[in-house]
Design brief:
There is one protein chain. This protein is an all-beta fold. It has a single domain, classed as Tachylectin-2, Chain A, CATH 2.115.10.20. The protein is built from no helices and 22 strands. It is globular, with a radius of gyration of 19 Å. The relative contact order is 0.16.
Length: about 350
């Protein structure tokens, strides 16, 4: 039997006040070159509620990796000074005369962050509003995630039929970065890509995993949906196995079934239809919530925290009461995928 329980709230009053963060969400996390945790959050406000003053996105918080088992302890923030600053340069709210122009940018949302050698890379979606992506792009940091600069890599929102918007990536021991992607509408399945790590910022070096009826699966073909569904946030991470090969865990927000699932893979090339898939959190109505048993109202996210294993898996999960705009926060949950 899978047991999932809440460890702690990670953001909100009493947790992130020192960084000027009242309400925020997402929180995809990786380890910086120096070992500390780097968590990237989305739309962030000074008050606990979604909306209001102090709007910025994305923002970065640093955490103590030793604190993961009992709840991530924040030690600092991105930008300069104690207040967590927006780490991608743009303006949220444009003048009213600009409001009807098609390129209006209301927010930039993080999808995933990765460390390759001494450089960190952040993939973001540049949005007009939730679900409408103008383009996606990659930013990099050479100072442990404190400041970020655009790399110049950009894909149109409609690239590959809109299937390269929401992204998660991980570095394999073969020198390739593998990335599962989907759209930002929570209405599409998953496709797989790879790129040599040293050419991550060369769009021409990215290739998709595709199949044909006659020749089967191969790299370099138009992408074929590897797993149908209606997916949102994704998190792909390699985790250690005692005395054995690393496993690849793919956490997905399954919007179609209102839950968070984790797929346990030997390789990103595994058949996702046959992979072991475990539901670790169930969505529910507000009156039916029970965080001690893994029932969470209006849940999304589900990012694997560094230090996790199959037997002790920690996830960053978001919650947003869209009727009241509070709760609007990120939480840490703990589960085990069993034997």
């Amino acid at each position: 039997m899978i047991r999932t329980s809440k460890v702690t709230d990670l953001t909100g009053p009493g947790h992130t006040d020192a960084f000027g963060i009242g309400g925020t969400d997402l929180g995809t996390t990786t380890s910086a070159p120096d070992g500390r945790l780097v968590s990237v959050f989305g739309d962030t406000f000074a008050s606990p509620r979604a909306g209001g003053r102090g709007w910025r996105s994305p923002v970065v918080l640093f955490g103590d990796p030793a604190s993961v088992p009992t709840g991530v302890r924040w030690t600092g923030s991105g930008g300069r000074g104690p207040r967590a600053r927006q780490v991608v340069r743009y303006v949220h709210q444009l003048p009213r005369w600009f409001a009807r122009r098609p390129r209006r940018v209301t927010t930039v949302l993080p999808t995933d962050v990765i460390t390759i050698g001494d450089v960190m890379y952040l993939h973001v979606m540049v949005c007009r509003e939730l679900g409408h992506v103008h383009w996606t792009e990659i930013h990099s940091s050479r100072d442990q995630g404190v400041t970020w600069r655009p790399t110049g890599v950009r894909w149109p929102g409609g690239h590959l039929g809109g299937m390269l918007q929401m992204l998660t990536w991980e570095l394999g021991d073969d020198g390739f970065v593998y990335a599962f992607t989907t759209g930002f509408q929570r209405a599409q399945g998953l496709v797989l890509h790879r790129v040599p790590a040293e050419r991550l910022t060369d769009p021409g070096s990215w290739e998709s995993w595709g199949s044909t009826p006659d020749e089967g699966w191969a790299w370099g073909r138009p992408p074929t949906v590897a797993l149908p569904g209606a997916f949102g946030e994704l998190s792909l991470r390699r985790v250690p196995e005692p005395g054995g090969e690393d496993r690849w865990l793919l956490s997905v927000f399954d919007a179609g079934n209102y839950r968070i699932d984790v797929l346990d893979l030997a390789s990103p090339l595994d058949d996702l239809h046959r992979a072991r898939r475990t539901t670790v959190l169930h969505g529910c109505a507000w009156e039916d919530e029970d965080h001690a048993t893994g029932r969470v109202a209006q849940l999304y996210g589900g990012y694997v925290l560094p230090g996790s294993t199959r037997a002790d898996l920690h996830l960053v999960v978001s919650q947003w009461n869209t009727a009241l705009d509070w709760p609007y926060k990120a939480m840490q949950f703990r589960t085990s995928l069993g034997d």
